[in-house]
Task: inverse folding
């Protein structure tokens, strides 16, 4: 044996501290010291040394007797970075496709309940619209919104497709790739149209390495921030009087009166808003005498509350929110021997949201192992068990649609601040006191869900065997799947504090389970013939998804309201509900050929044929091809004598992908259903029993077939100045044809029956994705890395049906359409009357086009259209404002999304900042309907915006006159008053970290890092609502804000330890 | 082909067709027509506040347009009924091989399905004046191509088939029988002004009719019991939407009435939500009588004649109801301050009114449940207590009597009409119909008398029209009656002018305009899908 020593430097001459030197084929190795020096005793039979360091190209040096080997490692050109593509892995150098990778460090930087949220701003071309609720689902769209729904990416975790990745612990993830174009994704054929996110979890390395134990801990606090500004009680009373005057009333009129503020020339704030049945009580009250009358149990007779006026004003947003607390702890054990590799991860994450009784917890256990059975066979598994629970969750679509709900967050801006949270004797206070409209006490509402419970248990993973019968041929068979079961119960309060109360105490339970499985068999052969390199993959796959059953029951009137006594047996139950899913089944064959000549010219071809049980036999199979090529310009001889470009590769690709996510597995069938909600009827004349009839629940079709999207992509990857600058840019276009649309059927066919999906529309998305990474060293101890991701997106519906150009979505409380999806426009375009301004005078009203309800101070709409005698639009103004004049007011689809990540490293300190921006999207601020008008719900809380409302004296304003009326010219219709610019720039993350020097603390740790970070520290936006991150029901109905759950500021403390 | 092409299957699908009668949570698609007939007809205003469910403001102000929600909801709800009826007929035709399906069953099932289809088309006809008439067995594509038409003849044919073929007594009280079909056919004829055939048919139904559960048609002693769940399917019920509470869904617990309760009553009143459907000043004043007879010249609204109200009086302030002479039906139809309200004590006035300046001082009273029925005849499983098990009578026997009276008057039999009107008034004046206070005294100064004679056909007609208003107020008929009498514009503009004095907000800009306000617009969304060649818009809406 010999001893080899030397120094390891980077290309700038700085030592690479901690670089690894390994005697190849053994476990013998060492690391470079603070000066980059190393010394290694090399076993006698070893002829190669391998030098590696994170972020640098690994080098192998063949020993031929020398004892001093100095190595200069080149960094940065992450060309040999492994890219996982699901069925295979490749390197950045090899790929011809548009693939973005996201590092685990980036994924775990901003804590959230769901890993998918972390893709926001990290990968160019991935649009992520999410909200602040822990555990929420989000809108994730890769390269635009390619369909009318079901356009979410396919997630593939360790080779197994799965619907969502909320169960994953970010610290368990080793690699994440986003396959954006057909060249990369169409290997997943019929499910790849929305792009593919491929995730590989951690595993032991191929080369033997000792056990490494790592702990990552994070504790964070989130600040709910401020609610929307609303009028103080005195301002509210004064504005109410202003409304009376604007209504044409004068003191003394019968209607010039308010239950709380009196009937005088000036409003008077009462001392008590409710004492028994007396409202607006001015003066003192004998509380002891009243206590005897107090009753908040509707079953015990008339309600009697004593509620003191909160003249200071209740901050309802503050009352329903508190500091959120987040904890995440992950313990990882990773290692390998010659014949066995393993990773075991245990994770705990608990998040208390900023909303009362709201949060999400997850406990996960992961074990990934692989064993050699002799030299030609490997077996392995990746398996995770997860227990998760969501507490007090709000919002449909797994929280994605939370902004669309009339929830407690909206109530906080609707409930008059003169109402206190509690009455004098401990009960809730609310709109039972008259004159405040009908919003419900949101504190009571949130307290009411405190005992609701639910949990979800799941197992996810795969088992596989790999055989290498001959050199370079790998046969692999993997069977994977997902099993989950859930159970929950809920309570409904019998309320007493509201103007409109729940009449009963309710209770219910629900449970269900589901499973999917996927069986994949592949053969992979790699060979080189001279400079010709081949990599062939053939595969066959079958899967079954969405198997499962659900059931539930609920009822009212338990014997005791103590939760310990309540179950389904102790209440009066309704008939239970029960159903099972119709699973979908797939059968697929696929192949991929990668060829390159001398690492200079690359060609990739992909072909996949998918069959799905969703479609009739004539249309069951779809074939999805893709071809792509690349040219490494820097591989040419004429490029050898320049130093600017270290690498330049030009890529181009074309391909087709399919989609059927939107389609139900029973789309083919006409179905009748028996359901009490739609089909029961008390035909016998009973007052308490109904018989169950049948009704047509679904109209089927055999004609539906695959939706197909065709993508073209041209891009280049360039590396400049010795690896200091990476530049990746892709120009792409994606055209989706035969869009599967639930055909809007006229009511004559029976509106209850679900219409089938049929192939009608088409859509085009196009854009530019770009990423620039600039990294440099400013001094030996000071380096930085700047990553800029940006994507321009243009989305346009190009066809709907043969007969119709659009379909609509309606708003909350606003009459009629607010969103119209129309040919020639982006998805989710807002629609309504365009406000030109406010009418300033009666003469303006009379000279303006005829408009129902027009009056000074009300909206004046644009006259831009009319209908002819056939009812067709003419495009010609006709002097009458009617539905024909509604027009497009903006779209929820952003024109540009991007992220900027700046990382500074100085000695042992690192500082990371991450900005995210979304530009060019509008938000439909539906909450203004509730907060900006007196006439929508008289007496509800009102936004401070109305302080600037129109009066004959205050004419230079956008805010209409404050009055009781609600008609076409005020709040009733969809107008541009509700549409706002939703662009924003957010400092999503700022982290300061400190890594202890190697060998500190007596070498007890191999790595120890502390970090403190702030998230969402500031947001620059012109949006008036609570938060501009407004999701919704993608793809045809999002960006509508009724009661959004805000993304709020938070602070975290992190520690990472490796033993 | 289908497991439903059997006797049991068709029975189930026919039941599904019945199930759509109440609209199933659709406020405007149910048969009760509280908004379509009563709000549009001036019986009631929307109530509540201007901004609440503001789609209904279009009815109060007669400002519907093709994109308004109400016509669209109504169209959808009714076509669901049509579709279900036709599905039953389609499956029935395919069920011939089922040995369990006897010919009598097949005839009955066809009769029930066609009765229901005729009902849904009758409702479409009176609201839209046209609709595509669908027949069984059409494909989805063919259904969309059927050109819209007026359908009176097809409605008649369906009811005629049901009248000719349905048994008199049915297995279940909620089913349509021969006499329900006869009554509805008579109504169909009446709506077309076919007076002679209407008179003959209605006379037969009145003389010989019985309910599906075998009771000879008759009036209940107490007028109020026609609106009491405990008297569902009585002799007065010709055909009703059946309702049940706590059956597993509030969709059969009068979901279209759920908003129509006093507001903010706490546990001291019914429903507790949401203050809609408040009777108008005009309808309340209409119950004023003069020596027991109504003010047929509409002078009931004059300063001298109108009812005293608590409009503008705070809930806690003293108030005594007036002592004017009134029809006893007033206090079964209109909730007013100081008068006993269904066992919940005296109506407390403004305490139960959401916003007097928007809805006036009155509360709805028909279709509201009694205090004693809370929990037993009401369904507490949903967000409010206002789901009840009271049937809504699509045709009530007194309605039938007045339809016959109308046919008689229009064919010159004034005496015959007089007798029938007096029969209705006699019941209203029964001692059982008189509302009493807890102490047994009459709750107000009730005085109702019978007409002695009609001097002319005009006088008889006026009395008949007024009687329908009083007897059937709030039951969804008024607007359709006014229109077929050619009085919609004059009556409704008169009512608007009167209500506007008190409620300038909700009636601001209200104006009944002929012809467009006579019928609903065809929903623009449907025209967009089917084209204006198949589905032309109604006059005045383009």
Result:
């Amino acid at each position: 044996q010999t001893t080899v020593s030397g120094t390891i430097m980077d290309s700038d001459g700085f030592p690479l501290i901690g670089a690894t030197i390994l005697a190849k084929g053994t476990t013998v190795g060492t690391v470079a010291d603070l000066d980059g020096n190393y010394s290694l005793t090399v076993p006698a039979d070893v002829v190669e040394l391998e030098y590696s360091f994170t972020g640098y190209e690994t080098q192998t040096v063949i020993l031929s007797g020398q004892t001093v080997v100095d190595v200069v490692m080149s960094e940065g050109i992450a060309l040999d970075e492994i890219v996982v593509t699901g069925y295979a892995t490749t390197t950045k150098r090899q790929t011809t496709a548009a693939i973005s990778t996201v590092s685990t460090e980036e994924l775990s930087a901003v804590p959230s309940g769901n890993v998918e949220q972390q893709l926001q701003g990290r990968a160019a071309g991935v649009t992520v619209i999410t909200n602040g609720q822990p555990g929420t689902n989000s809108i994730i769209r890769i390269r635009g919104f390619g369909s009318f729904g079901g356009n979410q990416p396919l997630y593939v975790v360790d080779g197994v497709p799965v619907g969502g990745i909320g169960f994953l612990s970010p610290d368990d993830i080793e690699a994440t790739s986003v396959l954006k174009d057909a060249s990369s994704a169409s290997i997943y054929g019929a499910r790849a149209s929305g792009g593919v996110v491929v995730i590989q979890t951690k595993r032991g390395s191929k080369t033997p390495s000792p056990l490494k134990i790592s702990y990552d801990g994070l504790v964070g606090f989130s600040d709910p921030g401020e609610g929307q500004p609303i009028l103080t009680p005195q301002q509210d009373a004064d504005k109410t009087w202003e409304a009376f005057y604007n209504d044409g009333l004068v003191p003394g009129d019968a209607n010039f009166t308010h239950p709380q503020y009196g009937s005088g020339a000036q409003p008077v704030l009462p001392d008590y808003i409710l004492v028994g049945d007396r409202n607006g009580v001015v003066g003192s009250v004998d509380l002891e005498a009243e206590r005897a009358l107090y009753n908040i149990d509707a079953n015990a007779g008339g309600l009697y509350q004593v509620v003191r006026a909160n003249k200071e004003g209740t901050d309802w947003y503050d009352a329903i929110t508190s500091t959120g607390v987040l904890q995440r702890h992950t313990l990882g054990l990773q290692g390998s021997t010659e014949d066995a590799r393993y990773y075991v991860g245990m994770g705990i994450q608990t998040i208390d949201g900023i909303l009362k009784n709201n949060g999400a917890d997850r406990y996960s256990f992961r074990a990934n192992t692989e064993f050699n059975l002799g030299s030609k066979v490997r077996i392995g598994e990746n398996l995770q068990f997860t227990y998760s629970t969501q507490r007090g969750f709000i919002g449909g679509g797994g929280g994605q649609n939370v902004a669309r709900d009339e929830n407690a967050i909206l109530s906080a801006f609707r409930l008059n601040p003169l109402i206190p949270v509690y009455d004098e004797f401990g009960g809730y206070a609310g709109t039972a006191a008259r004159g405040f409209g009908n919003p419900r006490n949101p504190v009571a509402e949130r307290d009411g869900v405190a005992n609701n419970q639910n949990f979800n248990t799941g197992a996810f993973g795969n088992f596989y065997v790999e055989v290498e019968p001959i050199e370079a041929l790998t046969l692999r068979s993997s069977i994977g799947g997902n099993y989950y079961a859930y159970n929950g119960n809920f309570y409904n309060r019998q309320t007493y504090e509201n103007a409109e109360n729940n009449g009963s105490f309710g209770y219910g339970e629900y449970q269900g389970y589901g499973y999917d499985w996927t069986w994949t068999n592949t053969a992979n052969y790699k060979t080189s013939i001279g400079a010709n390199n081949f990599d062939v993959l053939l595969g066959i796959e079958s899967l079954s998804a969405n198997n499962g059953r659900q059931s539930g029951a609920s009822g009212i009137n338990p014997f005791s309201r103590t939760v310990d006594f309540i179950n389904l047996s102790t209440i009066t139950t309704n008939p239970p509900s029960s159903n099972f899913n119709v699973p979908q089944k797939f059968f697929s064959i696929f192949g991929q050929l990668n060829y390159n000549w001398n690492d200079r010219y690359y060609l990739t071809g992909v072909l996949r044929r998918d069959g799905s049980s969703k479609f009739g036999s004539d249309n069951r199979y779809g074939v999805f091809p893709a071809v792509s090529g690349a040219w490494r310009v820097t591989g040419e001889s004429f490029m050898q004598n320049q130093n600017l470009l270290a690498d330049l590769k030009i890529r181009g690709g074309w391909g087709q992908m399919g989609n059927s996510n939107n389609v139900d597995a029973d789309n083919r069938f006409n179905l009748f259903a028996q359901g009490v909600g739609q089909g029961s009827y008390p035909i016998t004349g009973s007052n308490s029993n109904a018989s169950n009839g049948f009704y047509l629940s679904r109209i089927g079709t055999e004609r539906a077939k695959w939706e197909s999207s065709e993508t073209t992509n041209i891009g280049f990857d360039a590396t400049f100045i010795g690896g200091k600058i990476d530049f990746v840019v892709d120009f792409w276009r994606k055209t989706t044809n035969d869009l599967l649309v639930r055909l809007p059927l006229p009511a004559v066919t029976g509106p209850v029956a679900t219409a089938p999906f049929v192939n009608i529309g088409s859509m085009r998305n196009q854009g530019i994705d770009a990423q620039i990474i600039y990294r440099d060293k400013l001094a030996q101890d000071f380096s930085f890395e700047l990553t800029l991701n940006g994507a321009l997106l243009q989305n346009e519906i190009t066809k709907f049906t043969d007969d119709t150009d659009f379909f609509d979505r309606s708003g909350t409380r606003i009459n009629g359409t607010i969103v119209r999806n129309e040919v020639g426009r982006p998805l989710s375009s807002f629609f309504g009357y365009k406000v030109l301004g406010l009418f300033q005078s009666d003469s303006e009203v009379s000279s303006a086009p005829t408009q129902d309800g027009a009056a000074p101070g009300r909206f004046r709409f644009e006259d831009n259209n009319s209908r002819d005698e056939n009812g067709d639009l003419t495009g010609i103004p006709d002097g009458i404002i009617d539905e024909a004049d509604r027009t497009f007011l903006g779209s929820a689809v952003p024109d540009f999304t991007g992220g900027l990540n700046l990382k500074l490293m100085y000695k042992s300190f690192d500082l990371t900042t991450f900005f995210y921006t979304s530009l060019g999207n509008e938000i439909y601020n539906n909450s203004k309907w509730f907060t900006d008008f007196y006439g929508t719900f008289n007496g509800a809380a009102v936004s401070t915006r109305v302080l600037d409302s129109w009066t004959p004296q205050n004419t230079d304003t956008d805010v209409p006159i404050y009055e009781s009326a609600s008609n076409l010219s005020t709040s009733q219709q969809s107008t541009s008053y509700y549409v706002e610019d939703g662009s924003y720039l957010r400092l999503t993350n700022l982290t300061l970290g400190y890594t202890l020097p190697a060998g500190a603390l007596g070498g007890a740790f191999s790595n120890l890092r502390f970090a403190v970070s702030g998230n969402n520290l500031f947001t620059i936006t012109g949006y008036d609502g609570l938060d501009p991150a407004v999701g919704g029901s993608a793809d045809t109905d999002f960006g509508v804000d009724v009661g959004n759950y805000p993304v709020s500021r938070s602070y975290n403390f992190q520690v990472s330890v490796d033993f | 082909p289908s497991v439903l092409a059997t006797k049991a299957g068709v029975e189930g699908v026919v039941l599904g067709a019945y199930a759509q009668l109440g609209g199933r949570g659709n406020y405007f698609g149910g048969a009760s027509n509280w908004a379509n007939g009563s709000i549009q007809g001036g019986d009631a205003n929307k109530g509540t506040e201007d901004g609440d469910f503001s789609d209904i403001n279009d009815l109060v102000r007669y400002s519907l347009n093709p994109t308004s929600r109400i016509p669209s909801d109504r169209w959808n709800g009714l076509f669901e009924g049509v579709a279900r009826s036709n599905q039953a007929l389609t499956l029935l035709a395919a069920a011939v091989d089922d040995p369990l399906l006897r010919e009598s069953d097949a005839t009955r099932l066809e009769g029930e399905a066609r009765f229901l289809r005729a009902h849904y088309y009758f409702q479409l006809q009176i609201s839209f004046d046209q609709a595509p008439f669908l027949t069984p067995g059409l494909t989805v594509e063919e259904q969309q191509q059927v050109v819209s038409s007026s359908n009176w003849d097809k409605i008649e044919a369906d009811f005629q088939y049901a009248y000719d073929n349905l048994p008199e007594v049915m297995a279940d009280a909620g089913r349509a029988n021969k006499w329900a079909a006869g009554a509805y056919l008579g109504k169909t004829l009446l709506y077309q002004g076919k007076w002679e055939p209407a008179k003959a048919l209605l006379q037969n139904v009145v003389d010989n009719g019985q309910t599906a559960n075998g009771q000879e048609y008759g009036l209940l002693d107490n007028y109020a019991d026609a609106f009491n769940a405990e008297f569902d399917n009585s002799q007065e019920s010709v055909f009703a939407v059946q309702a049940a509470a706590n059956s597993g869904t509030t969709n059969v617990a009068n979901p279209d009435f759920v908003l129509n309760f006093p507001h903010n009553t706490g546990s001291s009143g019914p429903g507790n939500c949401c203050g809609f459907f408040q009777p108008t000043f005009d309808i309340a004043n209409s119950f004023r009588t003069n020596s027991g007879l109504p003010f047929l010249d509409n002078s009931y609204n004059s300063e001298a004649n109108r009812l005293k109200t608590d409009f503008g009086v705070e809930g806690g302030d003293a108030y005594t109801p007036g002592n004017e002479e009134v029809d006893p039906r007033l206090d079964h139809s209109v909730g007013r301050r100081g008068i006993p309200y269904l066992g919940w004590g005296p109506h407390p006035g403004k305490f139960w009114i959401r916003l007097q300046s928007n809805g006036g001082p009155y509360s709805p009273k028909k279709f509201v449940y009694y205090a004693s029925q809370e929990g037993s005849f009401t369904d507490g499983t949903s967000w409010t207590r206002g789901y009840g098990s009271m049937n809504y009578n699509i045709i009530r026997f007194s309605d039938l009597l007045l339809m016959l009276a109308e046919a008689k008057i229009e064919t010159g039999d004034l005496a015959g009409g007089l007798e029938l009107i007096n029969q209705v008034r006699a019941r209203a004046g029964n001692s059982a119909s008189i509302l009493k206070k807890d102490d047994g005294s009459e709750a107000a100064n009730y005085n109702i008398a019978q007409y002695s004679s009609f001097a002319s056909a005009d006088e008889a007609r006026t009395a008949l029209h007024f009687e329908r208003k009083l007897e059937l107020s709030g039951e969804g008929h008024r607007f359709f009656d006014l229109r077929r009498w050619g009085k919609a514009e004059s009556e409704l503009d008169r009512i608007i002018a009167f209500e506007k004095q008190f409620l300038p907000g909700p009636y601001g800009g209200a104006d009944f305009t002929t012809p467009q306000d006579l019928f609903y617009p065809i929903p623009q969304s449907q025209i967009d899908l089917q084209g204006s060649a198949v589905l032309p818009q109604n006059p005045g809406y383009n």
